[in-house]
């Protein structure tokens, strides 16, 4: 998990309900992104399943894939992720110690890349995360739904999900977006630091 840069803000409000699941956000805080230095918000969720409250901590943004690309060229054999790894902000030991239930792994390409290059870079990171989860399947489970998160939690594994960081990564193509979904991505932010042809970034000129 990324180091927190501010105190946690505690509150209690409904986030969503569907079927037997009722989810509330009970806390949030601001952290700084490891990949580009921008600020991002983290949330703590409480999940009620069939009337029983399950303690759930879901991290919605983790730049582990980009850090592995930059520092180790995605090579899982040269870094010991079962123990504290000083060059990274994430490892399996800290995820377990912190009680993380679910982790959205951010798949990121700088918004300065061209559309096609950004798309390829993003798929590259998706495949790395899938390989990473498979390598450490005793600790992690690749999931794409709330039900999958609950099942992984019951098995004592950390649910691993994918989030696309910036709409530039789909190269203005709904087909590429559908492909990303088929590969397991379950959210996409509209922009990153720069505008796309169809959405304005808060950090770019409108």
What does this protein structure show overall?
The protein is an alpha/beta fold and 206 residues long. 26% of the residues lie in helices and 32% in strands. The chain is built from five helices and nine strands, in the order βββββααβαβαβαβ. The chain has helices at 64-72, 92-97, 115-135, 146-154, 174-182, and strands at residues 9-18, 21-32, 39-49, 52-56, 58-62, 102-108, 140-142, 158-165, 185-188. Strands 5, 6, 7, 8 and 9 form a five-stranded parallel sheet that branches. Strands 1-2-3-4 form a four-stranded antiparallel sheet, with no helix packed on it. The longest helix is centred in the middle third of the chain and has 21 residues, at 115-135.
Highlighted features:
single chain, 206 residues, alpha/beta, five-stranded parallel beta sheet, four-stranded antiparallel beta sheet, 26% helix, 32% strand, globular, disordered N terminus
What topology does this entry show?
Layout: E1 9-18, E2 21-32, E3 39-49, E4 52-56, E5 58-62, H1 64-72, H2 92-97, E6 102-108, H3 115-135, E7 140-142, H4 146-154, E8 158-165, H5 174-182, E9 185-188
Round the mean pLDDT to the nearest integer and report it: 83
Q: Flag low-confidence runs.
A: 1-15
Helix segment count?
5
Order of helices and strands: EEEEEHHEHEHEHE
Oligomer: single chain
Largest sheet, described in full? 5 strands, parallel
Strand percent estimate: 25-35%
Relative helix content: 25-40%
Please identify the structural class as seen in this structure: alpha/beta
Number of strands: 9
Task: Indicate the overall shape.
Answer: globular
Report the end-to-end length measured between terminal Cα atoms. Answer: 32 Å
**Cα Rg:** 17 Å
